[in-house]
Structures are given as structure tokens and as C-alpha cells.
Design brief:
binds 2-acetamido-2-deoxy-beta-D-glucopyranose; mainly alpha; 0% strand; 75% helix
């Protein structure tokens, strides 16, 4: 564990001493090296405090893998800032990644809570400091307010629990949840814990901060938010679902109804959005609500479905944000109708869009298809009506994915783009690095299905 932390800390040296014109190349290369090393270390972890198992392993790997990609993506926007601010930005990005990584690996609920909440600070700094417009301050306020509203009850109940029951030794069988079986009010505990997670996930109805934060955040923020921060909530839900027992079903049922309707409503809402980044954000709400459903169903199949869904969605939505960002950098616009016709200028981008959109809508061999199948099967067993609603939502998802593809790629030659810069190698590489792991998971799915 110490090696892992030292590996991440070594990035600071590069940040401070890398020569100015090599800063981004050096940090990206170093980041890639560190993420590969930490993937190796995660596989062979020997630590009392940190535990990696079938659920947290893939998520920890995802957050490692994403780090060099975020640096790769945020390069052009940061390039014109003063040198010192570029270094500060990379430091903040690194810190954010370390916090999410440690949150996924924590074995103790209090420790998880600590990292879960500290990841808020760098995210807020990144949104508020490097976002695009003035509204970014509102967005970061929304984001922190929602998170804190969920977190305050959680920390109170954790303090009560830890002071009455004391600290227990972490056990690999029930990471995070050692003492919960002895806690007197499991229903109450489940409710409070999950309020915080459902805000982060976010459940439909508590999701208002997400489109705002995504739209205003710089590309780095959007990628991390979509790929790992939302998954912290999903991870927490899956872990705490060991608390779900028979007397809890009424509380959980309400949640289930919101999640099921949320999947459909958000998928439907996507047709009405004119802002490309908001569309991708709302579509992530739809996908993440499926994870809520899976966690509440609490069956082995729905569990592996939810893990796979989180990994697949993490890679896909991050790739979608990168694609949206490439268009944004060329046109300075996020409105779908203005972005149309891109296929004529960027033929290869059309191929990337097609692949990523197919991943997003769960085209058969992709991991999200397998995940959806697993979750749908469990849901069918639980309720036929729920199954019907989710199937309708699936139709809408396919519809808006194709709408997104057609409306950005097709159409007449866009005359308003003055200098249509071609896709450069950095951008191609960025997309390849997103797509390759998904293809790898198609070939070798046992990495995320257990
Ligand atoms: C993150 O950014 C803020 C604001 O720009 C800065 O004050 C702070 O030092 C940065 N954090 C790190 C670890 O560099």
C-alpha cells in the first residue's frame, strides 16, 4: 500500500520540476506509468486497511486508467494558462484521482466516508476555477450543497455508531459493513447511508446538480465526474445493500419506483435537450438509475450486472464527453443543431462516434449489453411492470443515442466553422485508449463479472 501511495506522490516531483514545454508530456507519461504500476499493486495488495475484491477492484482499476486520459484530454485548454496555474491544475487533478482511488479501496466505512467527501474539494476547485462560463460558480455551489445535504446526516450516524460500537477490525468478507449487523436500527442506518449515495449517484429527483456540473466543468472535471465520482455512490449502495432485509422493503420500494421512473423519464428527456453535454449528463443519470435498481434487487446477477454497468458506463460516458469536447474546441459551442454536419469534415470522428454511441446504447457484444441483460433478468423476476418500464426506457435510449449520432454527424456542410482543424493524434489516441478497454472486456468479460 505504501508503494502505491509513494508512486502517486512521485507525480508531485514531475509537476514541480518538469521543464515548462515538456510539462504535459512528462506528467502524462508519468501518470500512465503510475496508473499501470498501481494496477499491478492493486492486484497484489497486502494491507489491513485497504481491501480490494470483485466489486471494488474493477472500479479502482478504472480510476487508475482514467488518470492519464484526463491529462491527455485537458491539455489544449490549459496550454495558454500561466505555467504555475497549469502545475496547480495537474496537482489538483492528481489529488482528485488519489482520493477516489483510496475511497474505492477503503475497508472501513468512516475511511470511505472521508475519501468520498474529500473528493468533493478538488472537484469543486476544478469546476469553479477552470470551468467555462460564469455560471460555473452556481454549478459548483449546487454540487457542493447537494453533496453536503447528504453527508451531514451520514456523518452524524457514523459518529453515533462508532462511539457506541467502537472500531472493529476490517474483515475481507464484509468490507465497509463490519458493524452494521450489530447496529440496532438497520432500516434507519440504510436510509441515512443511502441518502448520501443516492445524491451522488444521482437518483432521479436528486439529480439536478449533475447536468449543471457537467455542462460547466472543464473536460477533466466532466470525465472524472462521469467515470468515477458517480460510481462512488453506486459502489456505496452495492456495499450497504447487505443491510437490506425484509422490514426495509417499504423504504426501498419508494426508492425503486423513483429509480424505475427516473430511467424512463431521463431517457425521454434526452430528446428535448439542445445542449450536447447536458444530453450526455442526463443519459448518465438514466444509466446510473439502473444501478440503483440493481442494488435494490440485491441478487447475485443484478450485482454483477451493476458492476459491469458502472465500468462500461464509466468508459463510455467519459469517451462521449471527450467527443463532445473535440467538437466544442472547434466551434466553441455545445448546441447540437450548430454542431451538425461534422462527418463531412472529420470522417474518422464519425467512426469514433458510431462506436461510442453503440457502446452507450448497449449494442449486443458490449459490456453494457451484458450488464443490462443481467439486471433486466433479475428485474423480470421481481416485477413484470418494472421490467416493462425498463424495456420502454431501453427503446428510448436507443432512440436518443441514434438521435445524438445523427444530429451531430449528419447534415449539410457546416459553413460556420471557420478553420476546421482535423482531429490530431492526441485526440485519436484519447479515444482509442477509451475504446480498447471496452473491447478488451468484450473479449475477456470475466474481469468484471463474478
Ligand atoms: C488546487 O487549486 C487551488 C486553487 O487554484 C490551489 O490553491 C491549490 O493549491 C491546488 N491544490 C494543490 C494540491 O495544488
Amino acid at each position: 500500500m505504501m508503494t502505491l501511495l509513494l508512486a502517486w506522490a512521485s507525480i508531485c516531483l514531475t509537476i514541480i520540476w518538469a521543464p515548462s514545454n515538456w510539462l504535459w508530456s512528462f506528467t502524462t507519461a508519468h501518470g500512465l506509468l503510475v496508473s499501470l504500476v498501481s494496477m499491478y499493486l492493486i492486484f497484489n495488495l497486502d494491507s489491513e486497511l485497504f481491501i480490494v475484491d470483485n466489486l471494488s477492484g474493477p472500479l479502482a482499476m478504472l480510476s487508475c486508467w482514467l488518470f492519464p486520459l484526463t491529462l491527455l484530454a485537458s491539455q489544449p485548454k490549459m496550454y495558454f494558462e500561466p505555467m504555475f496555474r497549469q502545475r496547480v491544475f495537474i496537482a489538483n487533478a492528481t489529488l482528485l484521482q488519489v482520493f477516489t482511488l483510496l475511497a474505492f479501496m477503503s475497508s472501513d466505512l468512516m475511511m470511505f466516508f472521508f475519501f468520498f467527501e474529500t473528493s468533493l474539494i478538488p472537484t469543486m476547485i476544478i469546476i469553479a476555477r477552470w470551468g467555462a462560463q460564469d455560471v460555473r460558480l452556481d454549478a459548483s455551489n449546487y454540487f457542493s450543497l447537494y453533496t453536503i445535504l447528504g453527508a451531514v446526516p451520514l456523518i452524524s450516524i457514523l459518529l453515533v455508531a462508532y462511539s457506541t460500537l467502537g472500531m472493529l477490525k476490517p474483515s475481507p468478507e464484509l468490507p465497509l459493513m463490519m458493524w452494521t449487523t450489530t447496529f440496532p436500527y438497520p432500516t434507519f442506518l440504510w436510509f441515512i447511508l443511502n441518502t448520501a449515495f443516492l445524491v451522488k449517484l444521482p437518483l432521479y429527483g436528486l439529480h439536478l446538480w449533475l447536468p449543471k456540473a457537467h455542462v460547466e466543468a472543464p473536460i477533466e472535471g466532466s470525465m472524472v465526474l462521469a467515470a468515477t465520482l458517480l460510481k462512488l455512490g453506486g459502489y456505496g449502495m452495492l456495499r450497504t445493500s447487505t443491510l437490506l432485509q425484509v422490514p426495509l422493503y417499504h423504504t426501498a420500494l419508494l426508492c425503486m419506483v423513483f429509480a424505475l421512473l427516473g430511467i424512463m423519464i431521463t431517457a425521454f428527456l434526452c430528446y428535448r435537450l439542445t445542449d450536447l453535454k447536458a444530453l450526455i449528463a442526463v443519459s448518465s443519470v438514466s444509466h446510473m438509475n439502473l444501478v440503483v435498481v440493481a442494488a435494490l434487487l440485491h441478487t447475485p446477477w443484478s450485482f454483477s450486472g451493476a458492476t459491469a454497468m458502472m465500468i462500461a458506463h464509466g468508459l463510455t460516458s467519459s469517451a462521449l464527453f471527450c467527443l463532445a469536447n473535440t467538437l466544442y474546441e472547434r466551434t466553441n459551442n455545445r448546441t447540437i443543431i450548430i454542431l451538425r454536419g461534422a462527418l463531412v469534415i472529420f470522417p474518422l470522428a464519425g467512426a469514433w462516434w458510431l462506436v461510442v454511441v453503440l457502446f452507450n446504447m448497449g449494442f449486443p457484444p458490449t459490456p453494457s449489453f451484458i450488464a443490462e441483460t443481467l439486471i433486466f433478468t433479475s428485474l423480470f423476476h421481481w416485477s413484470k411492470i418494472g421490467f416493462f418500464i425498463v424495456c420502454l426506457a431501453l427503446l428510448f435510449t436507443t432512440g436518443y443515442s441514434l438521435y445524438m449520432l445523427a444530429s451531430t454527424m449528419r447534415g449539410p456542410f457546416p459553413l460556420h466553422i471557420k478553420v476546421p482543424l482535423p482531429f490530431i493524434i492526441r485526440e485519436q489516441l484519447l479515444l482509442v485508449l477509451h475504446i480498447v478497454p471496452v473491447i478488451f472486456l468484450m473479449i475477456y468479460p470475466s474481469l468484471i463479472f463474478f
